[in-house]
Design brief:
About 60% of the residues lie in helices and about 15% in strands. By secondary structure, it is α/β, with parallel strands linked by helices. It has a seven-stranded mixed barrel with strand order 1-4-3-2-6-5-7.
C-alpha cells in the first residue's frame, strides 16, 4: 500500500469519526433507527434544530427541523424520536424552558391511552407556561404585598414625623417641651416652696420627738370619747345633720370667696401666712421640748391630780438616769 492510499484512508476515517462525533455531541445516535413526527405551534421562540425532545425529563429524541407555514402563519416542527418509544394520540407536546438562560425543549405529556401514532403523524400540542411566566406569576402577588407594606410604612412614618415635629403646635414633642418649660419655670421660682417644705420637715421631726407627750394627750382624748359614747347619740346625730347643713352653706360661701376663710383660700397671702404659722409652731414645739413644765402643768382634760402624777413620773425617770450615769463612772 503506497503512501497516497494510506493518506486517503486516514482522511476517510477522520471524516467518519468527525461526523459521528458531531452527531454524538448533538445527541443523535446514527446507529438507532428513528421515527419522524410533526408538531404545529403558534410560536417556537427558542426552539432550534437539535433541541431535545423529552418525556418526564427523559430524552427520547430531538428536533430535526422547523418550517414556517405561510398558509396558516404557524410553525411546523419535525421531531425525530427513537423507534423504541411508542406515542399515543392522547400525548400532547409543548415548549418548555429548561433553565433561566432561555434554553428550550419539546416536552411531551405522556399518557398511555388511545391509538398509537405512526411515523409521519402530527402530534397534538398545548401551550405550557414557561419558567419566566411561572416566576412572574409568583412574584406579582409578592410585589403587590410589598407595595402595600411600603405604602403603610410611609403613612406610619408621616404620622411619626408629624408627632415629632417641633414647630407643630399640636405635636407631642411640642407639648412635651412646653410642659418641661413650665416645670422648669416652677422649680426655678420654688425658693419659698423649698423653705416651706424644710419647715414642715422640721415640724414633723419635733412631733416624732414629742411622741410620748402626744400619747398622753391622746389618752385624755380617749377618756373624752368614752364619755361621748354614753351620750344621747340620736340628739347628737340630729345636731350633726344641722351642723352639716350649715357647713355646706359655709363651704358654698367659702368657695365663692365670701367671709374671712373664703378670702384666705382665694387670697395668695394664705401661702405666706401658712408658712409663718408653721415656722411659729415649730418654734413653740422646740420651746416645749426645752421647758416642758411651762406647758405640762396646764391641764386640758384631766386635773391637778393627773399633772402631779406625771411630774412624779418624770422625777423618777430623771433619778434613774442620774443613778445610771453615776454607776457608769
Amino acid at each position: 500500500m503506497n503512501n497516497q492510499t494510506k493518506v486517503g484512508l486516514f482522511s476517510l476515517i477522520t471524516v467518519i469519526i468527525f461526523i459521528f462525533g458531531f452527531y454524538f455531541l448533538k445527541g443523535i445516535n446514527l446507529f438507532t433507527t428513528k421515527s419522524k413526527y410533526y408538531a404545529v405551534f403558534e410560536n417556537i421562540d427558542g426552539i432550534y434544530k437539535s433541541n431535545p425532545v423529552t418525556v418526564n425529563g427523559h430524552r427520547i429524541g430531538s428536533v430535526n427541523a422547523e418550517n414556517f407555514d405561510p398558509a396558516t402563519g404557524r410553525v411546523v416542527v419535525e421531531l425525530v424520536i427513537d423507534n423504541g418509544f411508542t406515542l399515543y394520540d392522547s400525548c400532547l407536546a409543548s415548549i418548555n424552558s429548561t433553565d433561566l438562560v432561555g434554553s428550550k425543549e419539546i416536552a411531551i405529556r405522556y399518557k398511555v391511552s388511545g391509538k398509537t401514532y405512526k411515523s409521519g403523524d402530527t402530534i397534538g400540542t398545548y401551550v405550557a407556561p414557561d419558567l419566566m411566566s411561572k416566576l412572574s406569576g409568583a412574584i406579582d402577588p409578592l410585589k403587590d404585598n410589598i407595595t402595600r407594606t411600603l405604602h403603610n410604612l410611609d403613612s406610619v412614618l408621616l404620622a411619626v414625623k408629624g408627632a415629632l415635629a417641633k414647630d407643630d403646635q399640636t405635636s407631642t414633642i411640642h407639648k412635651l417641651n412646653a410642659a418641661l418649660d413650665n416645670i422648669h419655670s416652677l422649680t426655678a421660682k420654688g425658693g419659698s416652696l423649698d423653705q416651706t417644705l424644710a419647715n414642715l420637715k422640721s415640724f414633723t421631726g419635733n412631733l416624732n420627738q414629742n411622741n410620748e407627750k402626744i400619747n398622753h394627750l391622746l389618752a385624755n382624748v380617749s377618756d373624752l370619747t368614752d364619755t361621748l359614747k354614753n351620750a344621747d347619740l340620736g340628739a347628737t346625730v340630729a345636731k350633726a345633720r344641722s351642723a352639716l347643713s350649715g357647713i355646706d352653706t359655709l363651704m358654698h360661701g367659702i368657695n365663692n370667696g365670701e367671709g374671712t376663710i373664703g378670702s384666705l383660700i382665694k387670697d395668695k397671702q394664705v401661702y405666706n401666712d401658712l408658712d409663718s404659722a408653721v415656722l411659729s409652731l415649730n418654734t413653740l414645739l422646740v420651746d416645749v421640748k426645752a421647758h416642758p413644765y411651762r406647758y405640762v402643768n396646764v391641764s386640758v382634760f384631766g386635773g391637778a391630780k393627773r399633772d402631779a402624777k406625771y411630774k412624779e413620773k418624770l422625777a423618777k425617770e430623771e433619778a434613774k438616769k442620774k443613778a445610771k450615769a453615776a454607776s457608769g463612772k
